[in-house]
Fold:
Amino acid sequence: MVAPRLASDRVLEPLEGKDPTIATICSHSSLQIFHGARLEGFRTLGIARGKAPRFYDAFPLAKPDMFLTLPKVTEIGEHAERLRREAAVLVPTGSFVEYVGPERFSKLPVPVFGNRRVMEWESDREKERVWLEGAGVRMPRKYTDSSEVDGPVIVKYYGAKGGRGFILAKNRHELDNFRIVEPHVIQEYVIGTRYYIHFFYSPLNDKGYRCGDGSLELLGMDRRDEANIDELYKLGSQEELLRSGIRPTFVVTGNVPVVLRESLLPEIFEIGEKIVERSIDLFGGMVGPFCVEGIMTEKLEFYVFEISTRIVAGTNVYINGSPYSDMVAPGLSTGRRIALELKRAMAEDRLAEILS
Ligand code: ATP
Structure:
């Protein structure tokens, strides 16, 4: 089967007869993206607000070759011409979701690594559920009304970034104590262990774990450090904290490496595979890195509460390879894997299948 063509000739125009430059916003996972790109011989460009960030001076192997500095990252579209001149290929990260937004991002006249349509599916919780449930993946139950609640729940506000202000309640009675006004979703609070699974889907690779039109790779896993929820237990029960005016948050402050019981890997691969296959049916497929975020219960059932359809910051713990990616290729980071995919597409004249 031939992978769908994502990019039109118009999108690929700036790359004609030129070597691409790997570009991204100077934040999130940029060190890894630039480091990996350099290892594979690409030029690199960092997009920054204000002036070029100094911290790259401390990491010479990951410092971009050039910078594009803007008063505001939201203005990136106004600098598309410069990016096109540099034959930039944008690597989307959480910073694009956060600062540029799906609407502006979808219209940028600059080639993007992966299928840019995917951002609209990940940033809308309703669409995300349609995709994941349609894929047959187990998700936490969603309550349409608080009167249906029959166990612990988590209330997520729409657009709440990083889980700030989420509400946790042990039962319906406790939930009734909260006045929830903004648009939100009430979800079953799944009790178990969190895993953030880093996959890479290559439509070009016809070897390995075959999936969709190509192949699925497992590059790593992490768990997020979430302030202040991870440490709250040290201070006492939630009720007491609430009485003191302290609300739990899930703001991510860092990441730690984890591995999964090996016997659970087949199920994890099946989940990744179903998500990729459904994405091909829904919007022409997801290309490159994505992260399946879920909770493994004591019954060893994995509940997916979210998907990030791009490189996640949790991959930063594996800049020199992970226990999984080392068995794909030694020292392979997700950033480097992106560069390798681009290199292969250039060699095989298949850029239209991995860029959009
Ligand atoms: P981010 O933008 O950082 O990904 P978000 O605002 O999209 O966050 P989620 O990723 O859905 O929010 O959830 C944030 C955190 O809340 C998760 O990392 C996890 O710790 C916890 N969480 C989310 N859903 C559930 C659930 N159904 N059961 C238990 N914990 C959950």
